[in-house]
Amino acid sequence: MKDLILELRSDLKGRLTPTRFEHTVSVSFICTALAMRYGCDLNKAELAGLLHDCAKPYGDEDIIRKCRKQDLPLTDDELKAPVVLHAKYGAWLAEHKYRINDEEIINAIRWHTTGKAEMSLLEKIVFTADYIEPRRDRAANLALVRSIAFVDLDECVYQILKGTLDYLEGKGNFVDSMSKQAYVYYKQVHEEKKGELG
Ligand SMILES: Nc1ncnc2c1ncn2[C@@H]1O[C@H](COP(=O)(O)OP(=O)(O)O)[C@@H](O)[C@H]1O
Questions:
Q1: Best substitution site from 84, 145, 173, 180 to test ligand 1's pocket, by max atoms within 8 Å of Cβ?
Q2: What value of ipTM does the predicted structure carry?
Q3: Largest Cα–Cα distance in the chain?
Q4: Residue 27 backbone class (left: φ over 0; alpha: ψ -120 to 50; beta: rest)
Q5: Cα–ligand 1 centroid distance for 84 (angstroms)
Q6: In this predicted model, what pLDDT tens digit does every residue of 94-145 receive, in sequence order?
Q7: Which domains does the chain carry?
């Protein structure tokens, strides 16, 4: 496993920009830290983190063409905001180029950008690590999100979705409906927990 991880790291170093590679390695280590905290397989977490942005080098037109070539169905939302497609095509690359045959890892790559309702533990870990890794510095709610990431993962996912929707809507950007559905789901989890507390 260690050999595969080192091999992948060296492949990605050659394919990603230095900043993207730095982000990738950082995400992979935060994934392992979250996996330690929440009882997830460390190797799977590191692999998913390493590969999450493997399709990032492609621009919008290129990635739409590549998805169509592989018969990956594209939603209307994805065609309106193709920036999210690196997650879908990245999951395909993980399976077919990097020969990852673990559904959990492939799905964690698949949903790392938009998120979705009822994510698996590994999906939540990669989604969270992508937002909080130490090189990130833009999101307005980063301090809050970082402070709860190792305390309550569902609450953390809720706050990330809230921050992302606020940010995208504030800029007038189109928002993929998977994220809206995810937000509704994790808001419900948040409200239920608040109800239980008192
Ligand atoms: N649900 C969504 N709909 C549309 N755009 C989104 C959505 N979620 C994230 N984005 C945007 O997609 C881009 C890529 O997000 P991400 O995968 O986190 O990559 P990066 O590492 O470049 O931030 C960002 O500009 C983000 O704001």
A1: 84
A2: 0.89
A3: 53
A4: alpha
A5: 6
A6: 999 999 999 999 999 999 999 999 999 999 999 999 999 999 999 999 999 9
A7: 2-197 (1.10.3210.10)
